[in-house]
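FW: tagging you since you asked about this chain on Friday. Here's the raw sequence from the shared folder, copied in full. Didn't touch anything.
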Amino acid sequence: MAPRAQTNLATDQPFDGDGFPERRPLWVLDTNVVLDWLLFQDAAMLAPSRRLMRGGAWWIATAAMQEEALEVATRNVFARLGAALDRRERVASGFTRHATLLADPLPCLADTPALRCADPDDQGFIDLALSRSARLLLTRDKALLALAAAARTRGLHILQPQDWAMPDAAG
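HL: got it, structure written out here
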Protein backbone atom coordinates (compact mmCIF):
# COMPACT_ATOMS: atom_id res chain seq x y z
CA MET A 1 0.00 0.00 0.00
CA ALA A 2 1.31 3.44 -0.94
CA PRO A 3 2.11 5.77 1.96
CA ARG A 4 -0.60 8.30 2.66
CA ALA A 5 0.16 11.88 1.87
CA GLN A 6 0.15 14.45 4.62
CA THR A 7 -2.60 17.00 5.02
CA ASN A 8 -2.11 20.74 4.73
CA LEU A 9 -3.55 21.85 8.05
CA ALA A 10 -4.38 25.34 6.74
CA THR A 11 -6.69 24.07 4.02
CA ASP A 12 -7.28 20.42 4.99
CA GLN A 13 -6.20 19.56 1.45
CA PRO A 14 -3.86 16.61 0.91
CA PHE A 15 -0.38 17.42 -0.34
CA ASP A 16 2.56 15.34 -1.42
CA GLY A 17 6.03 15.26 0.16
CA ASP A 18 7.13 18.26 -1.90
CA GLY A 19 4.30 20.39 -0.54
CA PHE A 20 2.32 20.48 -3.79
CA PRO A 21 -1.37 19.66 -3.71
CA GLU A 22 -2.13 16.12 -4.76
CA ARG A 23 -3.62 15.87 -8.19
CA ARG A 24 -5.89 13.00 -7.25
CA PRO A 25 -9.58 13.86 -7.37
CA LEU A 26 -11.51 14.22 -4.13
CA TRP A 27 -14.51 11.94 -3.61
CA VAL A 28 -17.33 11.98 -1.07
CA LEU A 29 -19.20 8.76 -0.24
CA ASP A 30 -22.54 8.85 1.51
CA THR A 31 -23.26 6.56 4.46
CA ASN A 32 -25.10 3.86 2.53
CA VAL A 33 -22.37 3.65 -0.09
CA VAL A 34 -19.74 3.34 2.66
CA LEU A 35 -21.71 0.47 4.21
CA ASP A 36 -22.27 -1.14 0.81
CA TRP A 37 -18.49 -1.19 0.39
CA LEU A 38 -17.22 -1.97 3.87
CA LEU A 39 -19.99 -4.23 5.22
CA PHE A 40 -21.81 -5.70 2.25
CA GLN A 41 -18.95 -5.91 -0.29
CA ASP A 42 -21.46 -4.74 -2.91
CA ALA A 43 -20.25 -5.54 -6.44
CA ALA A 44 -21.17 -2.02 -7.59
CA MET A 45 -18.49 -0.67 -5.23
CA LEU A 46 -15.74 -2.95 -6.56
CA ALA A 47 -14.32 -0.59 -9.20
CA PRO A 48 -14.64 2.63 -7.17
CA SER A 49 -13.14 1.01 -4.06
CA ARG A 50 -10.22 -0.33 -6.09
CA ARG A 51 -9.50 3.16 -7.34
CA LEU A 52 -9.58 4.52 -3.79
CA MET A 53 -7.43 1.73 -2.37
CA ARG A 54 -4.85 2.14 -5.14
CA GLY A 55 -4.57 5.84 -4.41
CA GLY A 56 -6.31 7.05 -7.57
CA ALA A 57 -8.65 9.32 -5.59
CA TRP A 58 -9.00 10.76 -2.10
CA TRP A 59 -12.06 9.81 -0.06
CA ILE A 60 -12.87 12.81 2.11
CA ALA A 61 -15.31 12.81 5.01
CA THR A 62 -16.03 14.63 8.24
CA ALA A 63 -16.04 13.22 11.76
CA ALA A 64 -19.85 13.54 11.75
CA MET A 65 -20.03 11.37 8.61
CA GLN A 66 -17.79 8.78 10.22
CA GLU A 67 -19.89 8.75 13.40
CA GLU A 68 -23.09 8.33 11.40
CA ALA A 69 -21.63 5.36 9.50
CA LEU A 70 -20.42 3.76 12.73
CA GLU A 71 -23.83 4.22 14.36
CA VAL A 72 -25.74 2.84 11.38
CA ALA A 73 -23.38 -0.15 11.16
CA THR A 74 -24.33 -1.21 14.69
CA ARG A 75 -28.10 -1.22 14.11
CA ASN A 76 -29.85 -4.52 14.80
CA VAL A 77 -31.13 -4.72 11.23
CA PHE A 78 -27.58 -5.75 10.22
CA ALA A 79 -27.21 -8.47 12.90
CA ARG A 80 -26.88 -11.17 10.22
CA LEU A 81 -23.52 -9.60 9.31
CA GLY A 82 -22.02 -10.34 12.73
CA ALA A 83 -21.79 -8.76 16.14
CA ALA A 84 -22.38 -5.01 16.37
CA LEU A 85 -18.85 -4.37 17.64
CA ASP A 86 -17.37 -6.34 14.75
CA ARG A 87 -19.43 -4.38 12.22
CA ARG A 88 -18.43 -1.12 13.86
CA GLU A 89 -14.77 -2.14 13.76
CA ARG A 90 -14.94 -3.02 10.05
CA VAL A 91 -16.36 0.40 9.23
CA ALA A 92 -13.94 2.19 11.58
CA SER A 93 -11.02 0.34 10.01
CA GLY A 94 -12.19 1.38 6.54
CA PHE A 95 -12.29 5.03 7.56
CA THR A 96 -8.86 4.77 9.20
CA ARG A 97 -7.25 3.13 6.18
CA HIS A 98 -8.97 4.93 3.34
CA ALA A 99 -10.64 8.20 4.38
CA THR A 100 -9.17 11.61 5.00
CA LEU A 101 -11.20 13.26 7.76
CA LEU A 102 -11.62 16.99 7.31
CA ALA A 103 -13.10 19.74 9.39
CA ASP A 104 -16.74 20.56 8.75
CA PRO A 105 -17.50 21.87 5.25
CA LEU A 106 -16.32 25.35 4.44
CA PRO A 107 -19.09 27.94 4.12
CA CYS A 108 -20.35 28.70 0.61
CA LEU A 109 -18.99 31.81 -1.01
CA ALA A 110 -21.53 34.62 -1.36
CA ASP A 111 -21.44 34.44 -5.17
CA THR A 112 -21.97 30.65 -5.14
CA PRO A 113 -25.25 29.77 -3.45
CA ALA A 114 -25.44 26.40 -1.76
CA LEU A 115 -27.35 23.57 -3.35
CA ARG A 116 -30.18 22.56 -1.01
CA CYS A 117 -30.89 18.89 -0.54
CA ALA A 118 -34.52 17.94 0.05
CA ASP A 119 -33.33 15.70 2.90
CA PRO A 120 -31.58 17.85 5.54
CA ASP A 121 -29.78 14.74 6.86
CA ASP A 122 -27.91 14.51 3.54
CA GLN A 123 -27.00 18.21 3.24
CA GLY A 124 -23.56 17.65 4.74
CA PHE A 125 -22.50 15.40 1.86
CA ILE A 126 -23.28 17.97 -0.83
CA ASP A 127 -21.82 20.80 1.29
CA LEU A 128 -18.56 18.92 1.82
CA ALA A 129 -18.28 17.93 -1.83
CA LEU A 130 -18.86 21.46 -3.11
CA SER A 131 -16.81 23.28 -0.46
CA ARG A 132 -13.77 21.09 -1.15
CA SER A 133 -14.20 20.99 -4.94
CA ALA A 134 -14.71 17.24 -4.96
CA ARG A 135 -15.14 15.67 -8.38
CA LEU A 136 -17.45 12.87 -7.30
CA LEU A 137 -20.20 12.16 -4.78
CA LEU A 138 -21.22 8.50 -4.77
CA THR A 139 -24.73 7.90 -3.48
CA ARG A 140 -27.93 6.01 -4.07
CA ASP A 141 -29.97 8.62 -2.21
CA LYS A 142 -32.72 10.09 -4.40
CA ALA A 143 -32.53 13.53 -2.77
CA LEU A 144 -28.80 13.80 -3.54
CA LEU A 145 -29.17 12.32 -7.03
CA ALA A 146 -31.80 14.99 -7.75
CA LEU A 147 -29.02 17.59 -7.44
CA ALA A 148 -26.82 15.94 -10.09
CA ALA A 149 -27.50 18.36 -12.96
CA ALA A 150 -26.99 21.48 -10.83
CA ALA A 151 -23.88 20.01 -9.23
CA ARG A 152 -22.37 19.10 -12.60
CA THR A 153 -22.31 22.82 -13.53
CA ARG A 154 -19.96 23.23 -10.55
CA GLY A 155 -17.69 20.35 -11.54
CA LEU A 156 -19.21 17.77 -9.19
CA HIS A 157 -20.56 14.48 -10.52
CA ILE A 158 -23.22 12.86 -8.35
CA LEU A 159 -23.49 9.23 -9.36
CA GLN A 160 -24.68 5.86 -8.14
CA PRO A 161 -21.79 3.41 -7.68
CA GLN A 162 -23.01 1.22 -10.54
CA ASP A 163 -22.90 4.24 -12.89
CA TRP A 164 -19.26 4.99 -12.15
CA ALA A 165 -16.85 3.33 -14.54
CA MET A 166 -13.07 3.34 -14.63
CA PRO A 167 -10.91 5.00 -15.58
CA ASP A 168 -12.26 8.56 -15.77
CA ALA A 169 -16.06 8.65 -15.71
CA ALA A 170 -16.04 11.28 -12.99
CA GLY A 171 -12.61 11.46 -11.55
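FW: The chain has seven helices and seven strands.
HL: agreed, and The mean pLDDT is 84.
FW: great, closing this out.
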